[in-house]
Amino acid sequence: MNSTEQLTRPKPYQKKNSQGFLHHSRGILLYILPLALIPASILSFVYGDLLRITINISGCAAFLLAASLLRKGIAAENEYQDKKITQAPKWPLKTFAAFIVTITTAGIAFIGAGNSFLVSIAFGLGALAGMFFLYGFDPRREKMLTGAHGYSAEEISETIAEAQTQINGIEQANRQINNRGFNQRIRGICQQAREIVDMLEESPGDIRRARKFLNIYLGGALKVTEGYADMQRKHQSEQLTENFENILHTIESVFIEQKQKLLEDDVLDLDVQIEVLAAQLKHEGVI
Amino acid sequence: MSKTLRSIIGLLLLITTVSLATCQSLYKVTPFGNESSYED
Region A83-95: what's the mean pLDDT? Predict the structure, then answer.
């Protein structure tokens, strides 16, 4: 991948997770519990017992599948819990895993271990209860904060994710710029932008203004930074540097004011500013 | 029921049922578990 491609494709934003080992190892148990089925499968081969070969191997595979689904379900649940606004995970993976464990345990108890039908059902139900008590149910409700002004959780979380991707893009382009002064100022702009996005996540009532902010300010900042990074590699020009400096100055002040206005809940003033900046960016040929 | 208690009950239930079923299945394929059919 060359540097131009890197500039045009910002990495999606990924929140850093600082949870401990115990948290990350949730769901590992299902990989360990069916280990006895491996020697059982080998011995079934040794004695040439086709029925037990089938049940032990397929049981082992089913437990591994359930473990994998469970881990994915837990990861989706963690992501859901981390976000203030989000939709429920698309598939109830933990529930799928619980049912696979139920059927497999009952099947192994009945065919593999030779228990009676009712005892095998009891094994299955015990495993099902264990799965639900230990790992719980999948979250099914979309998380919404009050005062979202008719915007759905999906629209809000998409808007926030898009903003974070744009900020990543600006940071990525900043790494291509060989000017310490600019680098520092762009880092400051990104910091302000992240704070604004955090504020929007806290208070989605501002989402209407957020959309304007993202489309004009953040989109504009991304375009100019990428454009400058690209142009300065090809040829250095004083005029270009001066124009970029002017735009950076405008963006910096506007970002600080934007944050202040969001804090003050000053809708009208903000709308006027947005129009002014949009006009300036248009004048500079950015949008 | 507190979350910890629920998790402990769940852990015990899951370990008991799954490991018991799989270990019984292993035992059944050893010569001790099914002497009549495998030893002949």
Answer: 79
